[in-house]
Specification:
Blueprint lengths: L8 E5 L14 E4 L4 H12 L9 E4 L2 H10 L4 E4 L3 H7 L3 E6 L15 H6 L1 H20 L1 H12 L3 H8 L13 H16 L16 H9 L4 H6 L23 E5 L6 E3 L2 H21 L8 E6 L1
Parallel strand pairs: 2-3, 2-4
Antiparallel strand pairs: 1-4, 1-5, 6-7, 6-8
Length: 304
């Protein structure tokens, strides 16, 4: 989840001349219809003062199709949700020109269950949610190892997974149904009306139910009410790789060196790039005398 919209993004092909959404008037933009990325795109278009049904051509494409279309230049832009807004630029065939945080449309991911099934088998629903809470705990405790494992499971690079789910990550994985989440679901319902998928108002309160996650949290030893009021991100370490205090997480940087079990943390962007220069010199020197498996290789530099 991204309360301020993080996770949604608007992308263009790498060699496109488009630099901002203002350059897309009259162009074709694809997006998975009825997703949070769709709501983000509609808000971004409306913020330009445009009619989304007249001044841009919005077509539906699943993420995988949108990625291929970006590669081949078949579309002018593609809007999508986590992880594709970071994954496609990471793989080098697209550029991000607009981030979801610019519109403030909350990014939501949730679990749905048929009401009749939940009422008949509440213990199964609660057990499933407890397993999800346990997965969240494992990611919080060791995000690097889970990211590496996730790459094996899905093919999504570990660096991208870590950028979303590591400390101060793009996504929060908050298990509580915060007011912003419920508002985002209501906004999605309005998107359905814009798409003419329904002519009726949808009462979100009739199908948003937190009793199961509340019970799962209780059985797992968590305080649901405390978490409901808590908006803190997963914290970075108190000290960085060189022993300096990390006083402002937003100014910190990280480098993941291939083969190292933990990401290196630095207390500032300048310190991060200085460390990167040192690593690059070490790599250059090592290539002359070290075997390939002993060469330090930065996987990725990340600024929070």
């Amino acid at each position: 989840m991204g309360l301020r919209g993080a996770g949604n993004a608007l992308l263009v092909p790498l060699n496109s001349t488009v630099q901002s959404i203002a350059d897309l008037k009259g162009k074709t933009i694809s997006v998975p219809f009825a997703s949070t990325a769709h709501a983000f795109l509609l808000r971004a278009v409306q913020n330009q003062g445009w009619d989304p049904n007249k001044e841009v051509r919005i077509v539906t494409q699943a993420p995988e199709i949108g990625g291929s279309a970006l590669k081949s230049g078949q579309i002018d832009a593609h809007a999508d949700f986590v992880p594709f807004g970071e994954l496609f630029p990471f793989r080098g065939f697209s550029r991000k020109i607009l981030d979801g945080e610019s519109t403030g449309v909350t990014t939501t991911h949730g679990i749905q269950v048929r009401s009749d099934f939940a009422q008949k088998y509440p213990e199964i629903v609660i057990a499933y949610l407890r397993a999800a809470l346990e997965g969240d705990r494992l990611i919080r405790e060791n995000p690097e190892a889970i990211a590496e494992q996730y790459q094996k499971w899905t093919g999504i690079e570990a660096e991208v997974f870590y950028a979303f789910h590591g400390p101060q990550g793009i996504q929060t994985r908050d298990y509580t149904l915060k007011p912003e989440v419920i508002a985002a679901i209501a906004n999605a319902a309005q998107t359905l009306k814009v798409l003419k998928k329904t002519a009726h108002d949808i009462d979100v309160g009739t199908f948003v139910d937190d009793r199961y996650i509340r019970e799962a949290a209780k059985q797992s030893g968590y305080d649901y009410e405390a978490r409901l009021k808590n908006y803190d991100a997963v914290p970075l370490g108190a000290t960085d790789y060189e022993g300096h205090a990390v006083t402002n997480p937003k100014e910190a940087g990280q480098i993941w060196v291939a083969g190292e079990p933990k990401v290196r943390l630095y207390n500032s962007i300048p310190a991060t790039f200085q460390a990167l220069k040192v690593l690059e010199k070490q790599i250059f020197a090592c290539r002359k005398r070290c075997s390939p498996d002993r060469q330090p290789t930065p996987k990725r530099t990340r600024e929070n």
